[in-house]
């Protein structure tokens, strides 16, 4: 995209977006005592200014573990999950108290929302969360969301708030995702290796990036990193939602960016938006099995938007019931999507490779002609 085009697109997005998800990580919030309250004060001031201007802002904030870690000192073992959970319990009240105080200075109410992956995997609870967040916006409150590390078990954690924030973009129907980082944006070259490296102003097709080649490791304090941030940008791009990756500790960067200034890196979608239900599928719990499909099925799924029929399945791995999330993979092992299976693994093994007209003959009844219906299938390289 030509430079003038994306700058105009950026100004257009900023002028039209009214519901925004802002994520701030531990590396941005960190201070000598665990959390730098001046950063929280700056965030509260900027978000309050945006609210006054008509924006609805949901803030996803890390920092609870870092705050609790500072209190525990040498007793804290970062490799021990119960210590992480204890640190979260200790730190969450402290960080929320800071947000409450700072937002109150500007006449705003901070509303704590703690979530686990299980809350969002369950479709009914997911929709109820959407209603609650909408009500908070209607009441003029600022939702401050964090993963509930205190009760989450290892198998049910998001691992970093970039992933959680990305899901919430779809949950509330946000028009913009802003990721506040310890860097000034996305760099094509590592600034540690090349001091002259400058942040990229625009990424016009996030799906074409080789994230593994571009990105280094996660930060020391958090569990994310630039790879995680770009992966979340790629995921929300599926909804047609752009991402801003900007320096979180730079005073006024958030309000300046939403005013249209060329701050940080602007990430455009470059793909056709998908329905929010399909977007939810990508963040569902870990798939319980894999359906390996032949080349003909791959073409039908990718090129024609068809449902996956039993005839195209050549192998079924895993043991899962009806309605489970499963991967869809090529014979070469490339995962091309995820979807909800209309049949249990045991039955799929009986009907794989067969025409749909033979399902009833083999199983006694044919509940569905499709193994995975296209409405419950998401083909996406970001999975």
Tell me what the structure shows.
It is built from 15 helices and 15 strands. It is α/β, with parallel strands linked by helices and 383 residues long. It has 2 domains: 277 residues, Acetylglutamate kinase-like (Carbamate kinase, 3-Layer(aba) Sandwich); 94 residues, PUA domain (Archaeosine Trna-guanine Transglycosylase, Chain: A, domain 4), CATH 2.30.130.10. The strands form 3 sheets. Strands 5-6-4-1-7-9-10-8 form an 8-stranded mixed sheet, sandwiched between helices. Helix 4 packs across helix 5. About 2% of the residues have low confidence.
CATH architecture of the largest domain: 3-Layer(aba) Sandwich
The top-level CATH class of the largest domain is Alpha Beta
Tally of domains: 2
Kindly report the average pLDDT value: 87
Ends apart, CA distance between termini = 26 Å
Give the CA-based shape: globular
Order of strands in the sheet with the most strands? 5-6-4-1-7-9-10-8
According to CATH, the homologous superfamily of the largest domain is: Acetylglutamate kinase-like
Report the uncertain regions.
217-224
SS-based class: alpha/beta
Helical segment tally?
Answer: 15
Q: How many strands in all? A: 15
Instruction: Estimate percent helicity.
Output: 25-40%
Radius of gyration: 22 Å
Largest sheet: number of strands, sense, barrel closure: 8 strands, mixed
Provide a concise account of the structure shown.
The protein is of the alpha/beta class. The protein is built from 15 helices and 15 strands. It has 2 domains: 277 residues, Acetylglutamate kinase-like (Carbamate kinase); 94 residues, Roll (Archaeosine Trna-guanine Transglycosylase, Chain: A, domain 4), CATH 2.30.130.10.
